[in-house]
Amino acid sequence: MKPDSDTNAILQRLLRLVSAAHLPEVEISTHYGLPALKVGGKAFVSIKNTETIVLSLPVDCKEQLIEIAPEIYFQSDHYIGWPSLPVRIAKIGDTELQVRLTEAWRFRAPKKLRTAVDAI
Predict the structure, then answer these.
(1) Does the residue 43 lie in any domain?
(2) What was the pLDDT predicted at 120?
């Protein structure tokens, strides 16, 4: 995916919310060729396209969110059985997105880093 102004705006929104959540050691990178944010070398969110981001979350959490808010969270055949949750970026507010980014960061962050953050 070639970065454009819409993708950059999504990336800037994600970075702003990650910063507001005080999530350490986040790096801008790519994941399967898509713009992504990583912690400990693992992607916790990627930008699939200008309409969709994909969060890394446990499968049981993913299924609950799809059931609770199908207008925001959805499933595609590609992600069935995987800890990856597609999100309609235009449908999710900043407060909820920050919560989900924090959950995704915690899911992918190394245990030592999570423990250090919890101690603060």
Answers:
(1) yes
(2) 80
38 φ, ψ (degrees, to nearest 5): -125, 155
45 within a domain of the structure (yes/no): yes
Give 15-59 pLDDT, tens digit per residue.
999 999 999 999 999 999 999 999 999 999 999 999 999 999 999
How much is the CA Rg of the chain, to the nearest whole Å?
Answer: 13
- Beta carbons of 14 and 45 less than 8 angstroms apart: yes
> For residue 54, what are the domain limits?
5-109
pLDDT tens track for 68-84: 999 999 999 999 999 99
Q: How many residues does the chain have?
A: 120
Domain CATH for 56: 3.90.1150.200
Q: Is residue 50 part of a domain?
A: yes
